[in-house]
Amino acid sequence: MEIKKLSYYINQEKIIKSKNYGKKIRIAFLGSFTLNGFEETIQVQCNQEKINCITYNAPYNQFNEEILNENSDLYKFKPDIIFLLIDDRTILDKLFYFPYEYSEEDRRKFAEEKYYELENLIKIITEKIQSKLVITNFVIPTYSPFGIFESKMEFGLKDIILHINKKLKELSKNQDSVYLYDFNSFVTKHGERNVLEYKKMFLGDIKISFDIIPYLIYEFVGYLKPILGLNKKCIVLDLDNTLWGGIVGEDGIEGIKLGPDPAGRPFIEFQKVIKSLLKSGIILAINSKNNSKDAMKVIKEHPHMILKEDDFACLKINWNDKIANMRDISNELNIGSDSMVFFDDDPVNRELIKISMPEIKTIDLPKDPSSYALILRGLNDFNVLKITDDDFKRAKMYRQEYDRHVFESTTKNLEEYLKKLDIKVKIRLADKFSIPRISQLSLKTNQFNLTTKRYQEEEIKKFVKDDKMIVGCAEVEDKFGESGITNMFIIKKNNEEWILDTFLLSCRIIGRGIEEGILSKIIEIGKKEGIKKIKAQFIPTEKNKPAENFLSDFGFQKEEEDWVFLLQNSIKIPTHLSVKFE
Amino acid sequence: MSEEKLFEIIARVFNISIEQINDQSNSETIDSWDSFTVYILLDEIELAYNVSITTEESFEIKKVNDIKNILKEKRVNFA
What we know:
heterodimer; A: alpha/beta; Rossmann fold; Aminopeptidase; 3 domains; 9-stranded mixed β-sheet; 5-stranded parallel β-sheet; 24 helices; globular; B: mainly alpha; Non-ribosomal Peptide Synthetase Peptidyl Carrier Protein, Chain A; about 0% strand
């Protein structure tokens, strides 16, 4: 996204007419200095990302009062997320100017006290307001009255800030709903002299200059995307002049630019950044108009290719049009095209995708490849709130999925294919190891999801403790490998009736009878416990069409708003897979 | 430098039409004129005219004409 000047956002905010995007979030800003302009900017940026947001900016420098007073407007606002910004001058107070008027011991004591004040505020936010919190860390001072001698001081001015930052990091590591935003790095990136203009500070306690505010808001929107399940999961790449310089069909494998020389380094750097995202759970695919033989030779044999064949979950290298390829990638990987980011050096191809598939985030690459890596690094679309073991395995699992597809196309019919897959499903009750993944599935799964209810980790934890509820999940494995936890369900017990509050399946395993297998096992267990009927609902959304006929096909009967299954009926159990409850 | 250029900047920052602006325009006649938006305006003017407006000068600004006067002192010519 192009970042504009602050005045642009302030004006735009007045004229935007947001549609109902179905993604809503309540955002509060609290700060120790003037945060004017924040609300307008996030409103406009959210609108560009198809997020409906309602914002609240606490009165100037009233963050303590707003958090401590349970009758404050902040409490009434009921935020989903709070951004808390406290600056160095506020936290350090006199020590900002006169750190060495105090003994080392007093400086240490001071740092501890300040941290505990913050910890107390954070605790109140998580416990009483029950909002997610993003707190900015403190900027390591670039000036010391001791000048060059600062580095020789025991627990000096910089150490005070480093200490508080470190403690805040510890706290955010252990608190799921608290995130520490590295504002110090933000200031490093943009430069302290650009961020803090003294004139503005004296005029209106404005401590982040106008043209920098939109960049900070962009970073903040990076938190909203994963909360709302809008983060991207897949990078689709062109080859010629994108992953390497030149055109392999013309220049040959020896002629393309890829290697430790000035022309080749930008592509090496770009590939390395892509690889680092792959390692954090992002899926890679190729969409390239090329001779498959030429291109595959480079991918398999070029000594400087950082990305290897196995790193790509799907390779579409052919002369088909790019739109058809994009649809194929989406189908084969079972990833919605709205979860994709597309990199292509050719503006014509980009325009084609932008027009026909606007839900894909198409990146405008400049002519000069030296900034490719920088552009990729600057995107705020790949953030996740939690990294689970499954994320590390994901790329591998999608690659297996690709192999399954190839296997399927060589097998005679679906039945035979499914049998040969040798699917094993293990159902388990939620425990502390699976809770993060269970919540992640509820937040991210759009397609095979009966009710699309979104539950944060804290809510899942509450359900697990509730003896009137059952939270479970299923792990799936077949001859190609493990798919990890790819199903979760929540049951509300109501005497002799079970209500299926949530039942979903990760889209990459739909269509193999796994959903029937799991549900029939749940029903079998219910039967043993003396349950007479199971009630379920299908709440239609724009995306959950794949789950639309599941209940009726399974044998549920429509009763007003609900779908009901009576346990006296026989259960249809798929025979091609094994389902176990552990 | 023409008056029009200045008025264009003012119109853009305050999100009003250029016809609504004259030398006497102030916070009474322009709804979106407040202490914060004036700082944004000064920012944009500094950039457009390549001048620096001091803190003290910014205190004198009560109406559009005050901005003109400050710029005139900095040898900006409103022909």
